[in-house]
């Protein structure tokens, strides 16, 4: 630790530091700067400016040098990392030497290391958790009781939804609370058909319009952000020049920048948080400048940890002091434990012979959604749902592709290529199951291996359980039944046996709870034992629910930032 800048310049001292500029870090930046705090946002990756840094956003298929493919020689540089290996998205992919990690058990860890993080990569589905989720661990006897309930967060869901722009339908479902919705993105005919069949045949199931972070009818707060209505191009993953969907880059970060209270520092890999034994609080962070490899220190009164779930675990585990020899705030010894994720192993696809006269109008950046219907009101004690705890939601999407005949020669072939015939309707479903957090599923630091920044490598040790296997079986049975009732053909339902983490919804390790002996964070996302450090990304999740989680990270972040600033003003931090 000899090269730390112990006597940091005053310019290195801020009111607040935010680690990470992704979905949750962007919200922390917006809220803290908006409340007048000089805030340093530390981001390990490069800068990505909204619009100008989306190099493929407006390219036509024929304008890609390799027609969309990534040449083998370039692929080889990425080794086993297969995320975003398309020509349109290669600029988002990270190379293995950026952050090697040790898979004690196979784990797929998808990362987005640039300003905006995975807010530029996500599928934008956004549902609220309900009390059936917050009550879950206490009711069903797993993990620990959440320290909050729906009433604690409902206001903050509304707060972030209005700003981000969430489209959806008010469905009136107790287990999927309605939000502040812009008009929903319509289901297409085959999705509507399945919706009707489910409504006719099941009392406990509904197919609803996906709730997603797309602006379908801009409100003044969206135009003030410089964002416009979604154009249904469905090229979102390239970056959207219209700001049609919510990303940190289009929304929270430029808003924070306008306050003139934000300093955004890309290429800043946070190594650890500095804890001062005498002051009894965290005083700042250690950062490796990715360009110079120089270790630097930055100081602040409060620190928000938003590196995405596993990185936040890694940073806290690496934040060692004489007071906290096992990681910051880790008196309970539970830091890094109870890692959970979503179970996306079940997949189903089929075709439909009907609606031959119909096609889609434009491209649909959303999909249908069947909320959880297993073990919702109670844990079943008989019947199929009694075989496992909790349940699953499912995404459902239909579309119609071309059945192009590329055989033949000359004029006939030209004709076929110019006027391809539409194929049948296809429909698919993908499972989103709740996994039960268990102590054995954990991350820890490797005692000897470090990355190129000198940071100990993360070991991932997390496996599927029998509960997950049984839930996949039930998903396959139930979805096959629903698809059969809908008259779909060529039904193919499979268990992909994908690695844990493949869902990109990793959570836990720094869970919230009521008791410092069994949790790391209190109800305000504040470390029980280091009150000026807040963790508001997926690491804080006590249980996973089945909903796409990022909306909850946003709401928890805005809520915690509000509390932190009030506490700061009261001089409690
Ligand atoms: C293809 C895809 C589809 C998805 N679809 C959905 C969906 O439909 N709905 C949903 O809710 N979620 C979805 N997700 C997940 C969603 O993207 C994440 O839940 C969300 O981005 C997490 O927010 P975050 O702030 O925790 O992390 P991120 O958005 O990943 O941001 C973390 C930031 O921290 C930075 N960082 C990490 N470590 C350090 C460090 N040591 N020092 C400095 N900076 C650091 C990273 O570079 C990054 O910019 C999807 C993800 C992907 C990839
Ligand atoms: S579908 Fe909407 S949000 Fe996505 S790229 Fe097109 S305009 Fe942007």
TrEMBL record:
Cite the entry's keywords alphabetically: FAD, Flavoprotein, Oxidoreductase
Q: Which family does it belong to?
A: Belongs to the GMC oxidoreductase family.
UniProt name for this protein: GMC family oxidoreductase
A Pfam family matched in the record: GMC_oxred_N
Glucose-methanol-choline oxidoreductase C-terminal domain boundaries? 438-556
Q: Which InterPro entries match?
A: FAD/NAD-bd_sf, GMC_OxRdtase_N, GMC_OxRtase_C, P2Ox-like
Any idea where the Glucose-methanol-choline oxidoreductase N-terminal domain is?
103-319
Organism equals Fibrella forsythiae
Q: Which cofactor does it need?
A: FAD
């Amino acid at each position: 630790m000899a090269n730390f800048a112990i006597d940091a310049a005053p310019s290195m001292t801020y009111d607040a530091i935010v680690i990470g500029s992704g979905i949750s870090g962007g919200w922390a930046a917006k809220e803290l700067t908006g409340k007048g705090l000089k805030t340093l946002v530390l981001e390990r990756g490069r800068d990505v400016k909204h619009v100008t840094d989306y190099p493929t956003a407006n390219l036509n298929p024929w304008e890609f040098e390799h027609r969309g493919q990534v040449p083998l020689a370039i692929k080889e540089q990425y080794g086993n990392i297969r995320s975003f290996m398309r020509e349109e998205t290669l600029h988002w992919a990270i190379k293995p030497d950026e952050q090697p990690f040790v898979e004690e058990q196979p784990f797929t860890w998808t990362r987005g290391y640039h300003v905006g993080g995975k807010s530029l990569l996500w599928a934008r589905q956004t549902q609220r958790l309900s009390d059936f989720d917050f009550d879950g661990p206490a009711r069903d006897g797993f993990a620990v009781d959440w320290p909050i309930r729906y009433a604690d967060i409902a206001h903050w869901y509304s707060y972030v939804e209005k700003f981000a722009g969430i489209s959806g339908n008010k469905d009136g479902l107790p287990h999927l609370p309605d939000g502040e919705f812009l008009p929903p993105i319509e289901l297409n005919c085959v999705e509507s058909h399945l919706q009707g069949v489910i409504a006719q045949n099941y009392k406990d199931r509904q197919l609803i319009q996906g709730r997603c972070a797309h602006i379908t009818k801009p409100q003044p707060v969206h135009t003030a952000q410089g964002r416009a209505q979604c154009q249904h191009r469905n090229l979102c993953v390239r970056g959207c020049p219209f700001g049609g969907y919510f990303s940190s880059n289009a929304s929270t970060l430029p808003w924070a920048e306008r306050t003139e209270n934000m300093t955004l520092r890309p290429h800043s890999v946070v190594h650890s948080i500095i804890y001062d034994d005498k002051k009894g609080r965290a005083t700042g962070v250690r950062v490796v400048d990715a360009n110079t490899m120089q270790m630097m220190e930055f100081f602040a009164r409060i620190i928000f940890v938003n590196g995405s779930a596993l990185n936040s675990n890694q940073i806290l585990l690496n934040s060692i002091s004489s007071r906290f020899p096992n990681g910051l705030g880790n008196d309970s010894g539970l830091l890094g434990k109870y890692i959970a994720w979503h179970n996306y192993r079940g997949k189903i696809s089929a075709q439909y012979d009907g609606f031959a006269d119909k096609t889609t109008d434009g491209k649909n950046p959303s999909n249908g959604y069947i909320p959880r219907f297993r073990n919702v009101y109670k844990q079943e004690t008989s019947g199929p749902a009694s075989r496992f705890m909790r349940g699953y939601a499912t995404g459902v999407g239909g579309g119609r592709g071309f059945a192009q005949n590329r055989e033949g020669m000359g004029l006939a072939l030209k004709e076929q290529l110019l006027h391809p015939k539409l194929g049948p309707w296809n429909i698919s479903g993908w499972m989103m199951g709740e996994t039960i957090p268990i102590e054995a599923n954990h991350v820890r630091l490797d005692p000897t291996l470090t990355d190129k920044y000198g940071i100990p490598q993360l070991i991932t040790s997390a496996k599927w359980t029998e509960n997950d296997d049984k839930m996949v079986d039930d998903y396959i049975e139930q979805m096959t039944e629903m698809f059969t009732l809908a008259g779909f053909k060529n039904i193919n339902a499979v268990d992909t046996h994908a690695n844990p983490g493949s869902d990109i919804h990793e959570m836990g390790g720094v869970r919230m709870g009521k008791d410092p002996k069994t949790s790391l964070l209190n109800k305000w996302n504040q470390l029980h034992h280091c009150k000026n450090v807040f963790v508001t990304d997926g690491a804080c999740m006590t249980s996973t629910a089945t909903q796409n989680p990022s909306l909850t990270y946003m709401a928890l972040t805005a809520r915690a930032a509000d509390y932190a600033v009030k506490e700061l003003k009261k001089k409690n931090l």
